[in-house]
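Hi R.,

As promised on Friday, here is the backbone we talked about, encoded as structure tokens. Could you run it through your design pipeline when you get a chance and send me back a sequence?
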């Protein structure tokens, strides 16, 4: 007689957001620049979560799963690095740069995190999740880009509120 074990429930995006919140809080307590990337990333991920629940995507479940796998790659890399475990080299560079004692601009921390996350994690997550193949999630993927574009002004405002240099660059750039 065959026994069937129920599949584990899929992790929801709000669980990943909770993990990101804990990383932000941990790094805030340590006054560490390691919190710069996840603070920005949390805002974007929460917007995607709201869009999932609002039915913004053709396949909200698949996009939510993509966002979960994508977020969890960062969360896992951070935890492994923090615990002296193995970490993808792109994340090791970003994490080490945030903790080597050298003063860096906020944008440098953001770009190092975005480089590791977008150039490594996004491709891996998309390949892992795309049940219908990458062409099958193309329209929803482009909808995520719309969310990112809509977040840009609020993210720039947030950066400007903590960095006079960023506020100046934003004013200099104007509406561009």
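Update: got your reply. Pasting your designed sequence below so it's all in one thread:
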């Amino acid at each position: 007689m065959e026994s069937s074990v129920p599949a584990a429930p899929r992790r929801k995006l709000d669980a990943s957001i909770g993990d990101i919140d804990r990383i932000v809080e941990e790094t805030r307590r340590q006054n560490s620049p390691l919190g710069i990337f996840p603070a920005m990333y949390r805002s974007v991920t929460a917007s995607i979560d709201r869009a999932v629940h609002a039915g913004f995507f053709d396949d909200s479940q698949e996009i939510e799963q993509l966002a979960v796998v994508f977020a969890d790659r960062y969360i896992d890399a951070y935890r492994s690095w923090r615990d002296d475990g193995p970490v993808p080299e792109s994340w090791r560079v970003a994490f080490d740069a945030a903790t080597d004692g050298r003063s860096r601009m906020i944008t440098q921390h953001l770009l190092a995190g975005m480089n590791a996350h977008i150039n490594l994690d996004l491709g891996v997550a998309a390949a892992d999740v795309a049940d219908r193949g990458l062409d099958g999630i193309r329209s929803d993927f482009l909808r995520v880009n719309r969310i990112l574009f809509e977040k840009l002004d609020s993210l720039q405002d947030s950066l400007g509120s903590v960095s006079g240099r960023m506020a100046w660059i934003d004013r200099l750039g104007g509406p561009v």
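One thing I noticed while checking it: The chain has a mean pLDDT of 84.

Thanks again,
M.
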